[in-house]
Amino acid sequence: xxxxxxxxxxxxxxxxxxxxxxxxxxxxxxxxxxxxxxxxxxxxxxxxxxxxxxxxxxxxxxxxxxxxxxxxxxxxxxxxxxxxxxxxxxxxxxxxxxxxxxxxxxxxxxxxxxxxxxxxxxxxxxxxxxxxxxxxxxxxxxxxxxxxxxxxxxxxxxxxxxxxxxxxxxxxxxxxxxxxxxxxxxxxxxxxxxxxxxxxxxxxxxxxxxxxxxxxxxxxxxxxxxxxxxxxxxxxxxxxxxxxxxxxxxxxxxxxxxx
Length: 259
Hints:
Elements: E1 3-9, E2 12-17, E3 20-24, E4 34-38, E5 41-44, E6 61-63, H1 75-80, E7 86-89, H2 91-97, E8 101-103, E9 109-114, E10 117-125, H3 134-137, E11 141-147, E12 154-157, H4 165-173, E13 176-182, H5 200-210, E14 214-218, H6 230-239, E15 255-257
Helix pairs in contact: 5-6
């Protein structure tokens, strides 16, 4: 069974599998807003979401990598959460959000069902920056999606993470067909060389380890603190001989992908 993916902006994407409709890291505020992430860091939102929040329709579950940074959950996205049937997020995020939020520890799984469609969701480890940054960056997770009829492996969403041993553990446990990589090298002047998401080199390492058939870059545009865009990411993957695997999704345009 194929999946239909609509990349809306940054890490926000609509995933449609059979009768199930999932939304990742909902960010729908208008551009121009300035946001402060703590410890002297912050950013400006640069672009409009390619799909309005009013046009989303029914959402069975939100897959929320973390709730404490507005480039993954902004004011409009936060207001939308109660409209989803379920919100799957970190264990600390469940305590902050409450309501329909369900915290998931690393490797914990749950089942989403609608009609004849059933998806197993497993929380995967993520590290939002190096060890020095962890007290500020907080807890994040990724997600592995498995359903009947997958021919070549599962769908993996890294969440906000750098490349570290947790991704190696994911590769050991799962056969990945499609990898949605949070890239962009999120960083700030005040934190110097520390990066909070993968840069293109990290993305290449992750792809080499996971060996997916399809690589989908997300979380690389729309915000001032994303310092690596499509051009630099493309160059790195081409240089590594992985360019043919990269699938750039047109913002706002639903795309069917075999998995």
